[in-house]
Design a protein that fits this description.
This protein is an alpha+beta fold. The chain has one domain: Roll (CBS-domain). It is built from five helices and five strands; from the N terminus they run αβαββααββα. Strand 2 and strand 3 form a beta hairpin. Helix 4 packs across helix 5. The longest helix has 25 residues. The radius of gyration is 18 Å and the shape is elongated. The relative contact order is 0.18.
Length: about 140
């Protein structure tokens, strides 16, 4: 299974935020959408960073509540790992595991195309394992 097929199933809608948005606005958006990360983009939908719950918790621990008035650009992760539509679920799972990240933006031609979460990857792997088990049961039953 590829990232493209996962996006085709789940959709390509990504909740984004602009560089100059405040952390308070970002927190409200995370809570409203019940998600764990926002992709930070510029006007052309180029990925400029990612802001996760972890980023915000670390910032609050360092600077306190007054940090919530600061812009997203000062708190986001700027070295964003991305994946591409042709990547496989196993490749994405390996990147997420090795780098201890839960969200991986999908990039195409320098622009944001979608996002894959660890939940998406786990869901896909469970479906793959269940399908393989059913195929094995059918093979054994007809052998």
């Amino acid at each position: 299974m590829t990232v493209k097929s996962m996006l085709d199933r789940k959709g390509r809608n990504v909740v984004t935020v602009q560089l100059d948005a405040s952390l308070t606005d970002a927190l409200l958006l995370l809570a409203q959408k019940d998600i764990g990360a926002l992709v930070v983009v510029d006007g052309s939908q180029a990925i400029r960073g990612i802001l996760s719950e972890r980023d915000i918790v670390r910032l609050l621990a360092r600077r306190g509540a007054e940090a919530l008035a600061s812009p997203v650009s000062g708190s986001m992760t700027t070295r964003v790992l991305v994946c591409h539509e042709q990547d496989t679920v196993n490749q994405v799972m390996e990147v997420m595991t090795n780098h201890r990240i839960r969200h991986l933006p999908v990039e195409r031609d320098g622009r944001l195309e979608g996002i894959i979460s660890i939940g998406d990857v786990v869901r896909q792997r469970i479906e793959d394992v269940e399908r393989e088990a059913e195929e094995i049961r059918n093979y054994i039953a007809t052998a």
